[in-house]
Design brief:
Length: 384
């Protein structure tokens, strides 16, 4: 049997072996932990470099411009997808992470012009600011429309409201500024009886503007510039007829609204010339409609309206031989020419049927006969 000394040595050897094994296990564990730590560091560093790199421009040396449309309600995920599909960002994931980290929540809808040299940060800043593409717009202002219609066209086609347009078009302060700028505008447009100072002076045409953000003043002055070009050609001729520009345009605007083509307008201008020379009222219904701010086709005029004095209403009293106090619409160049070159006609009356055909007569009796005949033949215009 083993003595006590031998047993003690054996136990010590066993303990030493166990300690050695434990140290080896710990050494292995530490190695594994170290490797894992190194792998984690490598992964983090790699992820960081991937993330920062993916936020850079897709191609700094080749500027490829693209227009992308971001619809209202698109979240970060949807926007990231659109940008990735258009090759404007390197990674949709990094875009989403950037937005999350930086609390980006207010990217505005609209069309954006972006390019491949822009970083994610630059793209996001542009979208946060709402720097959308400003689309060029064209606005058509038809002939014979009055200021109220022009204001509506501005309201319908730009980011200005009807009221904003009317506030400027009714402003005498603004009109005074324009008088200083344009030779054909005079203090006549400031008459207290005139509804809208610039009525008759805004040339009807199709105009191009940089975007729907165009200011009302810019639209007005572009139209006035065109009026300047047109009227300058006829300045001497207008003066030779004994008219001021204001009086002349007032008459032209009535001719514009009474006729639909140059030949008829020349005849109508001839009738008006005859009536003015004889001291007769123009007796034009279109002036009465304007006087009472009723749109043509809205309804028939009442007897009270026809017989009420108003400096626009040539059907009313005290308007014998008078031209309306101001234009009732904005006029075309063809109407200007027709009024300057009226038909040499001895008629004092005219009437148009519902198809626009104009009938000229010398006497009121003939005029009434034509009207009755038109009614019998179903050619008299009636309002629904």
């Amino acid at each position: 049997m083993m003595d006590e000394e031998e047993k003690k040595v054996e136990v010590e050897e066993i303990v030493l072996e166990e300690e050695t094994q434990e140290k080896e296990k710990m050494h292995i564990i530490l190695k594994i932990l170290l490797i894992l730590m190194l792998l984690s560091i490598v992964a983090v560093v790699g992820a960081y470099f991937w993330y920062t790199s993916s936020l850079e421009a897709v191609n700094e040396n080749n500027k490829e411009i693209k227009t992308v449309k971001i619809e209202s309600g698109k979240g970060t995920v949807g926007i990231a997808q659109i940008l990735k599909e258009n090759n404007l960002i390197k990674s949709d994931l990094s875009f989403k992470i950037y937005c999350k980290i930086n609390n980006i929540t207010k990217l505005q809808a609209g069309e954006y012009e972006l390019d491949s040299t822009m970083s994610v940060e630059q793209i996001i800043k542009k979208m946060e600011a709402g720097e959308i593409v400003k689309k060029e717009i064209k606005i058509m202002f038809p002939e014979g429309k009055n200021i109220r219609k022009i204001a509506k066209i501005i309201g319908d086609n730009t980011n200005n409201t009807y009221k904003e347009a009317m506030d400027i078009l009714e402003s005498k302060t603004y009109a005074k500024e324009m008088i200083k700028k344009y030779w054909f505008l005079t203090d006549e447009i400031l008459d207290s009886n005139i509804y809208y100072p610039l009525e008759g002076y805004l040339y009807p045409n199709t105009y191009t503007f940089k975007s729907a953000d165009v200011k009302v003043e810019e639209i007005i002055e572009k139209m006035l510039n065109q009026t300047d070009k047109v009227l300058s050609k006829y300045q001497m001729e207008i003066s030779s007829k004994g008219y001021t520009v204001h009086k002349f345009l007032s008459l032209v605007s009535v001719v514009e609204n009474e006729g639909t083509n140059t030949v008829d307008r020349q005849g109508i201008a001839g009738v008006f010339s005859n009536r003015i020379q004889k001291g007769m009222a123009l007796q034009s219904d279109v002036t009465t409609y304007y006087a009472f701010k009723i749109d043509m086709g809205e309804r028939d005029l009442t007897a009270k309206e026809l017989n009420t004095f108003n400096k626009y209403n040539t059907r009313g009293p005290k308007m014998e031989g008078e031209i309306p106090v101001g234009p009732i619409s904005n006029v075309s160049e063809s109407s200007i020419e027709a009024t300057l070159n009226p038909t040499n006609i001895d008629a004092l009356f005219f009437v148009a049927d519902k198809n626009g055909k104009v009938y000229f007569t010398k006497t009121n009796e003939e005029h009434e006969q034509i009207k009755n005949k038109l009614k019998e033949d179903g050619l008299w215009y009636t309002y629904n």
